[in-house]
Amino acid sequence: MGASANRWVVLAAAGTFNALVGAVYVWSIFYSSLSSTYGWAPQATAFAYSLYIVSECCAGFLAGWLQNRMKPGILSLCGGCSFAAGWFFAGFADAIPLLYMTYSIMGGIGSGIIYNVSVSTATAWFPDKRGLANGVCVGTTGLSPIIFAPLGNFLITTMGVSMSFHICGIIFAVGVVVASRFLAAPPKDWTPENWIRGDRSSIQEDGLTTLQMLKKPTAYLMWLLFAVAASAGMMVIG
Q1: Integer distance in angstroms from the first to the last C-alpha of the chain?
Q2: pLDDT digits (tens, 9 = 90+) for 102-145
Q3: How many structural domains is the chain composed of?
Q4: What are the tens digits of pLDDT across the range 157-196?
Q5: Could you tell me the residue range of the domain that residue 74 belongs to?
Q6: If we measure between CA atoms, which residue out of 135, 117, 137 comes closest to residue 185?
Q7: What is the distance between the alpha carbons of residues 37 and 16, in angstroms, rounded to a whole number?
Q8: pTM
C-alpha cells in the first residue's frame, strides 16, 4: 500500500481515537447513576468531570512536547492505555478520591494525549486537505455519543454503573490497541501525489517553535476564543 493510500488508514485510526475521546460526552449518564448508587453529594460527583477536563487540557501541552520525541503509534498507545485504564479502574471506585484518581486524572490525561496526537498526525498527512482531516477528527468526537449514549444506558440498566465502567474500559483498550497500530507520521519531506507546496499566506508551512508561538498575540487570542466557545458546551455536558 502506497503512502497516498496509507494516509486514509491513518485518518481512520485518528477518527477512531477521537470517537473514544467523545465518550466523555455521556458523563451525565454515569454521573446520575454514581450519585444514586453511592449517595455521593452532587457537587463532589460533578467535580470528577471538571477535574477530567483540566487533566485533559494539561495533557494536551504534554502531548505536544512528546509527539516530537516519540512515534505517534507509541505515544497514542501509552495515552490510550491511560485513558482505558482510567475508565476500567473507575469501576472499583467506591469513594470520591478514587473516582478522581482513576476516571478524572488517569482517564483525562490519556484522553488529552490521544486527542492531540491523533489530530496532529492526521493533519500532517493531509496538507492538501487540512479541513477534511480536522473535520473527520472533530466530527467523530461529536458523533460518538450516538454509540456510547445508548450503550452506557444499556450497560448501567442491566449491569450497574461499576460494571459499566469496566466494560467501557475494556472496549476502549481494544480500540486503542488496534488504532495505534495504524497511527504513524508521514515520511520526512513527503507530499501528496500531484500536490505542489504553494505560497499559503494564512498558514506558515514550516510552523513555529514554542517560544515563537508564545510571542504571537494571535496565539493568546485563539486560546481565548477556544476557551469561550468550548466552555459553554462543556458546562452543558457536565
Answers
A1: 43
A2: 999 999 999 999 999 999 999 999 988 889 999 999 899 888 98
A3: 2
A4: 999 999 999 999 999 999 999 999 999 999 887 788 777 7
A5: 3-34+41-189
A6: 117
A7: 31
A8: 0.85
